[in-house]
Amino acid sequence: MLNVSNLESGYGKLQVLKKISMHIKPGEIVTIIGANGAGKTTLLNTISGLIKSTSGEIVFNDQNIGNLPAEKIVKLGCSLVPEGRQIFDTLTVKENLMIGAYSLNRNKKIINDELNKIFELFPILHERENQLGGTLSGGEQQMLAIGRALMAKPKLIMLDEPSMGLAPLIIKNIFDIIKELKNQGNTILLVEQNAKAALGIADRGYVLETGQIVLEDTSKELLNNDDVQKAYLGKDYKK
Amino acid sequence: MKLKKYYPIFGLILAVIFIQLLVSGIGMQFYLTQLTMSAYYGIVIIGLSILMGYAGQISIGHAAFFAIGGYTTAALTTMNFAALTDVPIVNFLIKTGLTISGMDPYGKKIIYISPWLSLFIAVIITIFIAALIGVPILKLKGHYLAMATLGFGIIIYRIVLGTSIFGEADGISDVPTFKFLFNFKINSDPALRVENYYIAWLIVVISIFILTNLINSRVGRALRSLHGNEEAANSMGVNISRTKLLVFILSAVLASVAGVFMTHFNGGIGPAESGVMRSVRYVAIVAVGGMANLWGTLIMGIILNYLSLRGYFGSYDDAVFGIILIVIMLFAPDGIFKLKYCNNFIKLIKKTS
């Protein structure tokens, strides 16, 4: 579904991603784990067109999207749930969701069907549909951000650190939802610092270190990998 | 349910009628002149409110668009084509009824372009200029965008001040009557005050009707999302540069249309209309009204322009608007209709004492 090869990108003169190659098959949850500054967010922003790549290819459903602007990429079915949620504070919950459907056609019935699906998945959003986005709690905002991305009927959903700043119980909640999304047949690219939780639900994983992919394997193998355990899962950690 | 959205507009219509009856009833008809002018300025202000408050793009150059509209119609309708009837395009305009012929006060025959045509031309020119400067400067944000629009405003001001067809420092006078629908006339004839008052407010009502519908539409949501977070809006599929340009052009056109009608109402236009202080005034009023608050900005636009036009601020006119801008930014950044400013004021006093 998504095929990234030799991708390089960065900010101005600063090169962050160095020859990244990865792929996602339909129906998979793939996770990218790595420490702060490894380039996880840069990778997602480059795939979604918010940052222009300097070289390499991004192929989404047999189409090269490397040079397309962000709004075209969303239209092709590749939605991003951005880091830190990025809810529109001054818009109501419902309006936030409607913005998510901006790239869909203007057919009101389709948009309403989609809206009802989201409300079924997140009943709390239905309860608060007329509340301003900025007044929601962190967990609710994360649900709203996921719902907003789903409104575009994406073929691939990319989640950037959905656990950021949330309480453990809420994180479990969010990850249950991600699992549920997979069961509904969605394809998911999950970027996480919380390696344990991410590998717990993912099929495969990539380990990103200073802009390079250093390891690729099934989640099970990665969870058992000694290096990964030491670096990301806290093995041998002594007080 | 659907109708509920339009209650404020019905309220506005009732208020407009009530004020006219009241003012005429107490024999103070001359107030209507300033109320008419305030209405035209009100159109500029609600247009700017959409741009600044809802889409979050500042413009300190809106007086320039007002002047572009006003000067376009003034220059075109005061040009005498009587000697040029052989020129094909003039001939074509005469044949299609897009010109108006009459006599000047000295009995000379004059032929000039119909104000409807000049309104149309003014809108086209405004769209063209707004698009031309909008594409490069809307890439800027915050202070940089403010400076760029300020620069644009100064350029237009110097152009009208230095160009002979725009009358240099004198501006253009003797702009003819604009024959509105149903033979209603827009001009400075004191006998037609009531008529002019209603025409101006009709245009305000139409503008605010369009804008309220826009805000709650798909495009409206997109432009409000820009205000919050451009990158997030972009990742939702909103084409940022196109949406920004669209709202910039829309608000420029509103300013320009207001300029056209105001110029016909006043019978002339001067360079002061394009001045930087005029742009600052518009920004100040939008801030007082609460930025993303169409009705707040309209109400404050009417009140403050009315007071200013009646001369209550005397020679401190511009200073008053400067002070208003500072005070509002300090104490009521959400506008005067959010009563938080009282709290901020009390806090400040507590801190300092």
Please provide a written account of the structure.
The complex is a heterodimer of chains A (239) and B (353). Chain A contains ten helices and ten strands. With 239 residues, chain A is an alpha/beta fold. In chain A, the strands form two sheets. Chain A has a six-stranded mixed beta sheet with strand order 6-7-8-3-9-10, sandwiched between helices. A four-stranded antiparallel beta sheet of chain A has the order 2-1-4-5, covered by helices on one side. Chain B has 353 residues and is mainly alpha-helical. Chain B is 67% helix and 5% strand. Chain B has helices at residues 7-25, 31-54, 62-77, 88-95, 115-137, 142-162, 193-215, 218-228, 230-235, 240-266, 276-289, 294-309, 317-331, 340-352; strands at residues 99-103, 109-113, 172-173, 178-179, 185-186, 268-269. In chain B, strands 1-2 form a two-stranded antiparallel ribbon. Chain B starts with 6 loop residues before the first helix and ends with a helix. The relative contact order of chain B is 0.18. Chain A binds chain B through residues 48, 50, 69-71, 74-75, 79-80, 82, 86-91, 95, 98-100, 102-103, 106, 148, 152, and chain B through 218, 221-222, 224-225, 227-229, 231-240, 292.
Q: Largest sheet of chain A, described in full? A: 6 strands, mixed
Give Rg of chain A in angstroms: 18 Å
CATH class call of the domain at 2-86 and 154-232 in chain A? Alpha Beta
Would you identify the CATH H-level superfamily of the domain at 2-86 and 154-232 in chain A?
Answer: P-loop containing nucleotide triphosphate hydrolases
Determine the fraction of residues in helical runs of chain A and give it as a percent range.
25-40%
